[in-house]
Amino acid sequence: MYFLIAEMESQLPATSKPSNEEETCPKTPETYRKIISTLPREDGWKAHGDLCLYQNFWCYSYGIEGAMFAQDHYNAQPTDIFLCSFPKSGTTWLKALTFSVVTRTHFDNSTTPLLLKGPHNCLPLLEIDFCRKGIKPEPGSLPLVASHLPYASLPKSINDSGCKIVYICREPKDAFVSMWHYTRKLPHGVQEPMSLEEAFELFCKGVSDFGPYWDHVLGFWKASLERPEKILFLKYEDMMRETLLYVKRMAEFMGFPFSLEEENKGKVRSIVEFCSFENLSNLEINKSGKYAPHIPVENKTFFRKGKVGDWKNYLTREMAEHLDEITEQKLGRFDLSFDDV
Ligand code: A3P
Prior knowledge:
By secondary structure, this protein is of the alpha/beta class. It has a single domain, classed as Rossmann fold, CATH 3.40.50. Helix content is 45%, strand content 11%. The protein has 18 helices and nine strands. A hairpin with an 8-residue loop joins β1 (41-42) and β2. α3 packs across α7 (126-133) and α4 packs across α13. The longest helix is centred in the C-terminal third of the chain and has 15 residues, at 317-331. Mean pLDDT is 88; it is low at 1-24. Adenosine-3'-5'-diphosphate is lined by residues 85, 87-93, 174, 178, 181, 275-277, 280, 302-306, 310.
């Protein structure tokens, strides 16, 4: 099994040798950092330093370094399944659900590693874990890998190898409000967390971790229309409404369909209930555990309300209308919209 603890050291270890390819590749961590130092920057969200603009998306420098490294070295296997998302769109939930589906013949709800590790430490995040730990997929390992990278910036081997991608997106007003709350809970050192209004302005301009939001969603949406057999596009709101249906669909898509017998024995329902916000957020590991030994993020930061439409408690009518207009303008002509939540 392929369980990894992410480490967010500020630098790649100089001696890191993640794969044989690296020995023939002239790029070093220093090369990446040199490139990153020349990128356009914004100090907006005040979460993990400046956001930098790389390949048309904004990201903290450690994420870009990881992305560059993954683009140069990640050797995707045809059996890999990528779990992709814009941050705060349901990544934690998707990780727990897919992990439970894929490992259900090994574990049940009383033995699953989710109990001891939490969703984020049960499967790796490409742009952090692969880069930091020098991991590479091994035959027989858990096929699930998560990523927040935009579709166009995923390592080329992911498409070339024909592996599958499950993408979860979330209505942008809720995604924004969730991101604002999340960022405020991160340790900020001497800096003050930013106000909702400041964050809103940046988000609308596209400046947010892995933003612009609309480009992220659109990249995967278009790809899912072109290659529906390889890319499953899910919406958080649909999943909340009909979790059972979408979990079955996801399992089938991933190549781990539920048998009739499993369905009759309540296996799908049991996974859905285990991965529900109420259950997951009340597990001890998610109440008091840390994302990783050196990462200053507590697991509980990934669980807030888990509701659809919570934006109504934070955004003014003008703000909501403004965000809706941008969404309609950017996504409407591609026939992508969200329920009025
Ligand atoms: P809110 O801040 O709106 O509550 P991500 O996992 O991509 O970081 O997204 C975090 C959002 O998903 C948070 O939204 C969090 O509460 C919600 N979430 C976490 N676990 C969930 C679950 N099991 N079911 C539904 N939503 C969940």
